[in-house]
Amino acid sequence: MRLLIVDDQASARRVLSSIVSKLEGVELHEASSLAEARRVLEAEAIDVALIDMRLSTDARNRDGLTLVAEIRAHTAAIPIIVTASQEMPEIRMAMRVGAYDYILKDDLCEELVLPVLRGIGSRRLLEREVRELRARQAPGGPIAPGLVGTSRPMELLREIIRRAAVSDRPVLVTGPTGAGKELVVAALHAHGPHPEEPILDLNCGAIPEALMESQLFGHEKGAFTGAERRQDGYFTLVRQGTLFLDEIAELPLPLQAKLLRVLETGRFRPVGSPAELRFEGRVIAATHADLAHRVGERRFREDLFYRLAVLTLRVPPLSERLEDLPALVAHFCRGQGRALRFSTDALDLLGRVGWPGNVRQLRNLIDRLAVFADGDLITPEVLQTFGVDQAAAADGEPGPGLGAIARSILRLPVENKLAAIEEALIAEAMSLSEGNQTAAARLLGVHRKAVGRRIDDRDRDKLQPDKTGQA
After folding, report:
1. Bridge partners (DSSP) listed for residue 4
2. In terms of Cα–Cα distance, which of 39, 113, 125, 52 is closest to 84?
3. Facing residues of 285 across strands?
4. Strand partners, 336
5. According to the model, what pLDDT value does residue 333 have?
6. Average confidence (pLDDT) over 142-165
7. 222 to each of 219, 233, 277, 328, how far by Cα in Å?
8. pLDDT over threshold 60, residue 404
9. Which residues pair with residue 102 across a beta bridge?
10. For residue 462, pLDDT beyond 60
11. What HEC string does 140-209 produce?
12. How far apart are CA 106 and CA 158, in angstroms?
């Protein structure tokens, strides 16, 4: 237990230190002022705080109350015991703000202080045991309500989430794009040790390397050109919550080394700062990529891979749990502004079509149906008009064959059929990826820059004047 004593009187700190030393497993920290206490709280993961109400000889001083309020605004997980020379309004205010108990300095003795601290220790142990018990023994509990379906792969995934959530170890969530990795991360946080704390997400492939380090670790004023003020990074802002690193495979190698050090030591250094800070939260990483393959290509650190892969959760693609498709369709229909109904034949058709975009692709299809379908009843004929190939699906194939697709394209009344199908593919990939060019490029099997160039060319063509010279 890491305990912080905040008191401007050295004699009071000595008395409290002597009493607290009687407890086993206590790591003691001291501060004599509000500023010093803030520095300790920033650098250490404090479990219990004993705070004097007046950190000065000035009777008007309210720094102790200020510190209690600041801690409570930051977290509800640290029990606070306030001390004072006599009964005062500040004590009542501190209790209202969220202090756990108070002790008068005339009563600073083992008989009064130690039972309070032991009670806090017992309560924290009991809370942890209750969380673990609920997570492990509640098979009907609301684990990941957004993960719809009762198939064997989904039941297995929920059980793994239930067991992994109570751990404070890093977690690696794998699975294809659109399968629901974000829902798994949210469930791990919601059933973890500190669901009341923040969950912050950072896409490792969407931020330039030069900015990524500052985003993660924070920086001091003047650390680099443009750093006009000090800024906390995600490792600080997440507090005791969850830091979700999406697309971890895209994290640059130099930052992989720094992330590994944080996971191993629990400490990090903001850019431009000589002091180390303590990371109190939990890291959950996600990727669609084969990290083991990237390790072999030396594009991902082997030691970081094994550090993350201790707890690995694989989210199955929709093709491995097609029996969940009717429940998913019903779930997405409930979120629409109209009462869509799917015929039995339509559901059967959907069950025999491939889903490269997984659950996200299904959701986007239903969103389009809700906007553009003429009637509320969805039949195979309606699905066909929205790109679901009825003939190919009827043959039992996972989706329309390339030959059938090519024959359909060649019958289109379009002059440049190659350009038309390329534009349609890019548009569909962007729709499935919700506008994310990196994810769209992954679906298309090309580099992100290729997608960006084609989108730029398309937009440029739209701005070109027509043959009459009009824009």
Report:
1. 29, 49
2. 52
3. 172, 245
4. none
5. 93
6. 85
7. 8, 15, 19, 51
8. no
9. 82
10. no
11. CCCCCCCCCCCCHHHHHHHHHHHHHHCCCCCEEEECCCCCCHHHHHHHHHHCCCCCCCCEEEEECCCCCH
12. 54
Residue with tokens 């809700």: 370
Pick the CATH number of 2-129 from 3.40.50.2020, 3.40.50.2300, 3.40.50.300, 1.20.200.10: 3.40.50.2300
Pairwise pLDDT comparison (313 vs 144), residue with the higher score:
313
Confidence of residue 132 (pLDDT cuts 50, 70, 90): low
Q: Report the pLDDT value the prediction gives residue 401, as an integer from 0 to 100.
A: 47
Q: How far is CA 228 from CA 222, 237, 376, 469, in A?
A: 6, 19, 56, 49
Q: What CATH superfamily is the domain 153-316?
A: P-loop containing nucleotide triphosphate hydrolases (3.40.50.300)
Spatial separation of the C-alpha atoms in residues 190 and 415, rounded to whole Å: 54
Spatial separation of the C-alpha atoms in residues 429 and 435, rounded to whole Å: 8
Per the structure block, which two tokens stand in for 255? 């930052």
- Cα 98 to Cα 116: distance, rounded to the nearest angstrom: 16
In this structure, is the dihedral angle defined by the CA atoms of residues 135, 286, 43 and 33, taken in order, positive or negative? negative
Supply the pTM of this predicted model.
0.63
The tokens describing 148, both together, are: 């719809």
**Please, what is the Cα angle at 206 between 202 and 211, to 5 degrees?**
75
- Domains 2-129 and 153-316 in one fold: yes
Nearest to 87 by CA among 115, 61, 106: 106
Backbone angles phi, psi at 220, to 5 degrees: -90, 160
Query: φ and ψ at 163, to 5 degrees?
Result: -80, -40
Q: What is the pLDDT of residues 283-304, one digit of tens each?
A: 999 999 999 999 999 999 999 9
